C-alpha cells in the first residue's frame, strides 16, 4: 500500500529535480549521450543536432548540478551524473512499456502482478501485444504454443486450462524438456478428471507440478527465449484475445521473478 502523505511529500522534495530533465531535451540528451563515453563539443553538436551555444548552456546547468565535468577538452559524467542517466533511462523505458502494454493492462486485473514487479515494468520495454483477429481468433495462442513446445526449459503459471498442456507433457520432445507447472485447483481438476490415463503414462522425471490455493487469475509462460502473459478482465473473464510477448534478458529475469514469487506460495503436487 502506498503511503500517500509520504509520496506527496517526496514529490514536493524532488519535483524540481524531475522538471530539470523533463523540461529540457538538451540536458536530457547530453546526459544520455555522455553515458556512452566522454565527448567533446563538436561530437555532441553533431550527435544531438543542437547549436554549440545551446549545448554549452545545457552543460553549464549540468555542471552546476554536479552531473557533468570537463577534463582535457572532453565532457564526462560524474558519479551522480551516471546515476541520473541510469534513472532517466529507466523512466523512459517504463513509460515506453506502459504505452506498449496499455491494451493488456487497462481494464484488466493487474493485481496478480506483485508490486515489486509492477515497479520493474521497464524490464518489459521490448515487449509487444499480440491480438486476435476476427479471421484468425486462435492465431496468437497457437503462435505462443508452438514456441513453448520448441523450448527446452518451460515454466508455466495458469488458472486457465489449455489442451496444449498435454502436448507439452507427452509429445515426442517431452523427454528433452524440463517442465515446471504451477496450477490452480480448477486446472488440476481438469487434468485429473479428463487426462488421468495420459498422466499415468508420463515420464515424471522432468515434470514438476505445484498447486496453488491462491485464487490466481493469470496465464503465464517462461520459455527459453521469451515470456508470454495473459490477464483476466475486470469482469472476471479471461481475455483470450491478447497476450504479451517479450524477449531479451531483462524480460526473462522479470518472468523468472514472477514465477518464483508464486512458486513460494505453491505446494508440490504428485501425479
Q: State the strand order across the main sheet.
A: 3-9-8-7-4-5-6-10
Topology-level CATH name of the largest domain: Endonuclease, Chain A
Through-space gap between termini: 39 Å
Count of DSSP E strands?
10
Class from secondary-structure proportions? alpha+beta
Q: Which percent bin holds the helix content?
A: 40-55%
Q: Secondary-structure element order, as H and E?
A: HHHHEEHHHEHEHEHHEEEEHE
Question: What fraction strand?
Answer: 15-25%
Question: How would a crystallographer describe the biggest sheet?
Answer: 8 strands, mixed
Number of helices: 12
Number of domains: 2
Give the C-level CATH assignment of the largest domain.
Answer: Alpha Beta
Radius of gyration: 24 Å
Poorly predicted tracts of residues: none
The geometry reads as: elongated
Architecture of the largest domain, according to CATH? 2-Layer Sandwich
Quick description:
This protein has helices at 4-22, 25-36, 41-48, 52-64, 79-100, 102-105, 115-118, 139-149, 164-170, 185-194, 196-200, 249-263; strands spanning 68-71, 74-77, 128-131, 153-158, 178-183, 207-211, 218-222, 226-231, 242-247, 267-268. With 271 residues, it is an alpha+beta fold. It folds into two domains: 4-90, Orthogonal Bundle (Arc Repressor Mutant, subunit A), CATH 1.10.10; 101-268, Endonuclease Chain A (Endonuclease, Chain A), CATH 3.30.870.
Amino acid at each position: 500500500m502506498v503511503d500517500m502523505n509520504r509520496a506527496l511529500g517526496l514529490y514536493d522534495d524532488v519535483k524540481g529535480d524531475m522538471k530539470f530533465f523533463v523540461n529540457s531535451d538538451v540536458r536530457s540528451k547530453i546526459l544520455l549521450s555522455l553515458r556512452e563515453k566522454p565527448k567533446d563539443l563538436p561530437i555532441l553538436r553533431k550527435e544531438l543536432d543542437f547549436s554549440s551555444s545551446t549545448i554549452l548552456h545545457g552543460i553549464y546547468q549540468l555542471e552546476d548540478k554536479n552531473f557533468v565535468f570537463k577534463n582535457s577538452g572532453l565532457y564526462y559524467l560524474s558519479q551522480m551524473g551516471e546515476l541520473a542517466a541510469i534513472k532517466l533511462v529507466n523512466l523512459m523505458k517504463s513509460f515506453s512499456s506502459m504505452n506498449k502494454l496499455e491494451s493488456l493492462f487497462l481494464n484488466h486485473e493487474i493485481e496478480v502482478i506483485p508490486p515489486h514487479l509492477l515497479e520493474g515494468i521497464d524490464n518489459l520495454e521490448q515487449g509487444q501485444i499480440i491480438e486476435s483477429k476476427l479471421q484468425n481468433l486462435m492465431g496468437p495462442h497457437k503462435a505462443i504454443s508452438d514456441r513453448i513446445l520448441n523450448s527446452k526449459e518451460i515454466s508455466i503459471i495458469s488458472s486457465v486450462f489449455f489442451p496444449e498442456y498435454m502436448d507439452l507433457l507427452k509429445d515426442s520432445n517431452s523427454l528433452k524438456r524440463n517442465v515446471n507447472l504451477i496450477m490452480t485447483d480448477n486446472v488440476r481438476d481438469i487434468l485429473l478428471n479428463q487426462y488421468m490415463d495420459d498422466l499415468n503414462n508420463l515420464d515424471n522425471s522432468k515434470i514438476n507440478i505445484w498447486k496453488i490455493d491462491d485464487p490466481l487469475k493469470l496465464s503465464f509462460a517462461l520459455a527459453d527465449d521469451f515470456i508470454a502473459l495473459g490477464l483476466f478482465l475486470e469482469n472476471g473473464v479471461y481475455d483470450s484475445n491478447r497476450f504479451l510477448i517479450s524477449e531479451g534478458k531483462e524480460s526473462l529475469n522479470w518472468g523468472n521473478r514472477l514465477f518464483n514469487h508464486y512458486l513460494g506460495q505453491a505446494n508440490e503436487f504428485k501425479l
